[in-house]
Design a protein that fits this description.
- With 710 residues, the protein is α/β, with parallel strands linked by helices.
- The chain folds into three domains: 5-267, 2-enoyl-CoA Hydratase, Chain A, domain 1 (Alpha-Beta Complex); 302-477, NAD(P)-binding Rossmann-like Domain (Rossmann fold); 485-708, Orthogonal Bundle (N-(1-d-carboxylethyl)-l-norvaline Dehydrogenase, domain 2).
- Helix content is 50%, strand content 11%.
- β18 and β19 form a beta hairpin.
- The longest helix is centred in the last third of the chain and has 22 residues, at 607-628.
- The two termini are 38 Å apart.
- The chain binds (S)-3-Hydroxyhexanoyl-CoA (3H9).
- (S)-3-Hydroxyhexanoyl-CoA binds next to β5, α4 and α12.
- The site of (S)-3-Hydroxyhexanoyl-CoA (3H9) has 25 residues, from β5, α4 and α12.
Length: 710
């Protein structure tokens, strides 16, 4: 048909194969090719039924996401629309069968649902993940899915974007048969058995559409759930509206309503940000000077030092994917406590039905607790997760240098410290790397991989690959205090505190940032992490402070008073037995006392100023980090903030957000803050340059990619 679609005949069957690797997206040429093959099937009297199958590893994984930017930028004026093709498939007078393996996602599922039947292998998944890209299904997914699966499941799938497996799809009526063995052979047998059956079009199946009385509570519950789970996002609500339209309008009117909602979402800043995040998540894996074929170090056994919160979470990551772990602590009591926490975490998952007791038992059996270094000589990777103290880390690495086999990766879960200094305690700095996990380490998807001066490319490539294996997103960062994430968060937290000193209440600052979309405000986050942590670090680094530079007054005073946050029931807030925070008059009084003593004139502070002071502090530091090469690209910073710091996906990350505000505007405000607050706000020269050139951080990334290619 064309280079993306092949068409073959097997007796009375016409077989259409999509060949658009890697995921058979509906790129230009694919729908056209399917259309041509369909015409062939329709007009060839010898052909009695048709099959569509994906070549390679998957069925169609959706529309080509790269095309959306072309539509919104005006480059592709006629948009993306497969509705007519799908109606033509449905109108074919011969039984049409979609044969599914891999993922039938988005437009892929929409194509499959226009077929008269769907067969799938057991490992296949189907889903409408569009809202994860800030859009909704745009090829009648919201209209055909409820007709096959019923209103409740269709609403859920379109609003949360999560896929279901073939078995669930069979039970729901999305799939008609599960094929054991070869998919194409199974599909052919199924097709032959359907040749004389009357054809029922999906769009004519109205029996699962329910009525007003049964549907209203489903939509109300879905809207409430989406409001909570996808706070601030428009796509899930729009997806629910579109499914509701399917229950109230005839099919083609429903499609028209879906189209309107789809267009609204597609042209929103939210979808642009989320598409940036989708490609960004994949872009961060590409490191210019580390070729794809860099030899990897096989990882069959791991060891973790420290069974505290971080060490325990890191251990779970390994055993979850079948890698056995030697878990070391210094005392039996600490080891028992660590193991008990892991067991409790797993038990909770078993109780919630996430996996079986048998799976839990297998995972626990992969952990070998130890108080010594016996067995460490066999480990392919050791992750150190002891206290954030340089002397202790160096002592640990010197010991590992003596015990571990040559070539083993020696990784430190430091969140701030100099990886080169840690490596200097060994005779093999090329094997030393930072692996900065985020708490809770078994949940958070981010892994900052810190490159030391001597870290070998093999070690880095293996660490990036391992991140993927343990279902994390690894982002390579350079070595400096706090690396990327924590170095930036330091500026942000500082401004949050200054705002409180200058007149805002803690709940004003947290409230404004929560409203902006962050999972939690910075002061509440401090209470969760423990105010004693930063206080101790600041004490350790007090000698590095520059005289005359403004210091935050309140957090350390709270810690001095034993107000460590949630763990002591008091911090920036006071907590009840359910950990619900309330403003504490004692804190208000303390703020007033300390600021009066420091001669700070308190004033009214707007929400806008709260957002600008905190978020632009991130952006300005991010720009400095980019100039120094600590982050490879602006998108790497965005992914760090989306995956590790609760930054809202629909804002695209701090750097993307700044570009949407306009870098000139951001730069001007940074200059004003510099004039008002002094050197902490020194504008990043890169921010200045991009603002003056009318560019965005995306332009900067493109410049970098171009330069790397030479
Ligand atoms: C849609 O369908 C709208 C419709 O309602 C109709 C509108 C009118 N397009 O993830 P991987 C690339 S919206 C373009 O590493 P995996 C990806 O960037 C779409 N490119 O593989 C990567 O490129 P590179 C609804 C895509 O095996 C490479 O393929 N569909 C697309 O870990 C490999 O990807 C979705 O949202 C795409 N649709 O996971 C599905 N998908 O190598 C989105 C992937 O250059 N995709 N690429 O970095 C996925 O969820 C995963 O890619 C998938 C495979 C599970 C399919």
């Amino acid at each position: 048909m064309n280079e993306l679609i092949s068409y073959t005949k097997d007796g009375e069957l016409g077989i259409i194969t999509v060949n658009n690797p890697p995921v058979n997206a509906l790129s230009p040429g694919v729908p056209e090719g399917i259309g041509l093959a369909l015409e062939e099937i329709t007009k060839d009297d010898e052909v009695k039924a048709g099959i569509l199958i994906g070549g390679g590893r998957t069925f169609i994984a959706g529309a080509d996401i790269k095309e959306f930017g072309k539509v919104t930028s005006g480059q592709k004026r006629d948009g993306i629309n497969f509705l007519d093709l799908l109606v033509a498939i449905e109108d074919c007078p011969k039984p049409m069968i979609a044969a599914i393996h891999g993922t039938a996602f988005g437009g892929g599922l929409e194509v499959a649902m226009a077929f008269h039947y769907r067969v799938a292998v057991a490992s296949a998944q189907v889903g409408q993940p569009e809202c994860k890209l800030g859009i909704i299904p745009g090829a009648a997914g919201t209209q055909r899915l409820p007709r096959l699966a019923g209103v409740a499941l269709a609403t859920q799938m379109c609003a949360d974007g999560n896929p279901i497996n073939a078995k669930a799809a069979l039970e729901a009526g999305i799939v008609d048969q599960i094929v054991e063995g070869d998919l194409l052979e199974g599909a052919k047998a199924f097709a032959r058995s359907m040749i004389d059956n009357p054809i029922v079009k999906t769009r004519d199946k109205n029996d699962k559409l329910g009525d007003e009385a049964t549907n209203a509570p489903i939509f109300a519950a879905a809207r409430a759930a989406a409001k909570k789970a996808a706070r601030g996002m428009m796509a899930p609500q729009a997806a629910i509206d579109a499914v509701e339209a399917a229950t109230k309008l005839e099919f083609f009117a429903g499609c028209a309503r879906e189209r309107e909602l789809f267009q609204e979402c597609l042209f929103s800043d939210q979808s642009k940000a989320m598409i940036h995040a989708f490609f960004g998540e994949r872009e961060v894996a590409k490191i210019p000077d580390i070729p794809k074929d860099t030899p990897l170090i096989p990882i069959a056994k791991a060891a973790v030092i420290g069974a505290g919160t971080m060490g325990g979470g890191i251990t779970m990551n390994f055993v979850n994917v079948g890698i056995p772990v030697l878990l070391k602590e210094t005392t039996q009591e600490a080891l028992d406590r660590g193991l008990a926490t892991i067991a409790k975490n797993y038990s909770n998952s078993v109780k919630k039905g996430r996996f079986s007791q048998e799976v839990m038992d297998k995972r626990m059996a992969l952990i070998t607790p130890t108080l010594g270094y016996d067995g460490f000589e066999e480990a392919d990777i050791v992750v150190e997760a002891v206290f954030e103290n340089m002397a202790l880390k160096k002592e640990t690495f010197a010991a590992l240098d003596q015990i571990c086999k040559p070539g083993a990766i020696l990784a430190s879960n430091t969140s701030t410290l100099d990886i080169d200094e840690i490596a200097s305690a060994t005779s093999r700095p090329e094997s030393v790397v930072g692996t900065h996990f985020f708490s809770p380490a078994n949940v958070m998807r981010l892994l900052e991989i810190v490159r030391g001066q001597a870290t070998s490319k093999s070690v880095l490539a293996t660490a990036m690959d391992l991140a993927k294996k343990i279902k994390k997103v690894g982002v390579l960062v350079g070595n400096c205090y706090g690396f990327v994430g924590n170095r930036m968060i330091h500026q942000y937290g500082r401004e949050a505190q200054f705002l409180v000193e200058e007149g805002a209440q803690p709940q004003d600052v947290d409230g404004a940032l929560y409203e902006f979309g962050l999972a939690m405000g910075p002061l509440a986050m401090g209470d969760l992490a423990g105010l004693d942590v930063g206080w101790r670090i600041r004490k350790e680094h007090a000698h590095l402070e520059k005289p005359g530079v403004r210091k935050a007054l309140i957090a350390d005073e709270l810690a001095e008073r034993g107000r460590y946050g949630q763990k002591t029931g008091k911090g920036w807030y006071i907590y009840d037995e359910n950990r619900k925070p309330s403003p504490d008059p004692e804190v208000t009084a303390l703020i007033e006392e300390l600021t009066a003593n420091a001669g700070i004139q308190r004033r009214e502070i707007s929400k806008e100023e709260i957002i600008e002071r905190t978020i632009y502090a991130l952006v300005n530091e991010g720009a400095k980090i980019l100039e120094e090469g600590i982050a490879l690209r602006a998108v790497d910073i965005d992914i760090i903030y989306l995956m590790g710091y609760g930054f809202p996906a629909w804002r695209g990350g701090p750097m993307w957000y700044a570009s949407t505000v306009g870098l000139q505007k951001v730069y001007d405000r940074v200059c004003e803050f510099h004039a008002q607050h002094g050197e902490l706000w020194t504008p990043a020269p890169l921010l200045k340059r991009l603002a003056e050139e009318g560019k965005t951080f995306e332009d900067f990334d493109k410049e970098k990619v171009k330069a790397a290619r030479g």
